[in-house]
Fold:
Amino acid sequence: MFYRYSGNSGIQLPVLSLGLWHNFGDVDDFAKARDMIIHAFDSGICHFDLANNYGPSPGSAETNFGKVLHDDLYAHRDEMFISSKAGHEMWPGVYGDGSSRKNIIASCDQSLRRCRLEYFDIFYSHRYDGVTPVEETMEALIQLVRQGKALYVGISKYPPEKQQLAYDILREAKVPCLLSQYRCSMFDPKAQMENFQLATDNGSGIICFSPLAQGLLTGKYDNGIPANSRAAKSTGFLQQSQVTTERVEAARKLGVIANERGQSLAQMALAWLLTDQRVTSLIIGTSSVAQLDNNLSTLDNLSFSEDEIRRIHNIISDPQLWF
Structure:
């Protein structure tokens, strides 16, 4: 495993981190989830990315992670970097959603109980909710650090103008934002164009989620939409309408280049994002130990020739592909 420093800090993260967004909830196979968490740690992945609403049901990914941590890995707690977030819906109705001070503080307390932790290494504001003043949300994050419930704080998915405001408020309070989390992939370069440099200029590391565009950059959809895929589910984040002819054809072309490199398309897509030295880590999601190992094999080939860079750029520079 390779590690990178996060922004202007002493935080070191593996270039591949394990995200528990999918496949770790109470609707999933706990034994399989346990095996993936332990195998990830044994493979050098010390960063585990959670959120209060991960499941389903909301909160169950944290509960399951807490059980694995308590039963199998707690002796290694000081070797691990554990993150969680709050800001998206946990339950319908008042205070089940949003980025208010009340919600952020209460959510952190609930998440700590589910994970059986005394503190998080980093706690994020999961989003700017469009209503709560950024000042109020940042004050909540500052309070968490000063109470010892989080060592560091971060933001996720903030638009540029709110992103800068968050950095300014946290810096003034001497609780700097050291990690900024954004969606990014070959098919989704918006954050790379709008948010990355702002983060870097303010001393924040960058963590990318959905680096495989919810599976579009795996070759899974080359011959239609599989019955068990995310796009086949009406509740999934990847909708069938997003599996366009243009994206499928681009994935096929990228797959040819990946094959020439001796990689899967997924491995090449991860390696491509890691060529951006502003990126601290990529959050990968897995459904099996075998898939986790396939992603880890990305590290065997992280370099690109000038010809490969040119060919890839020619494919992914078409705005029709972008989310």
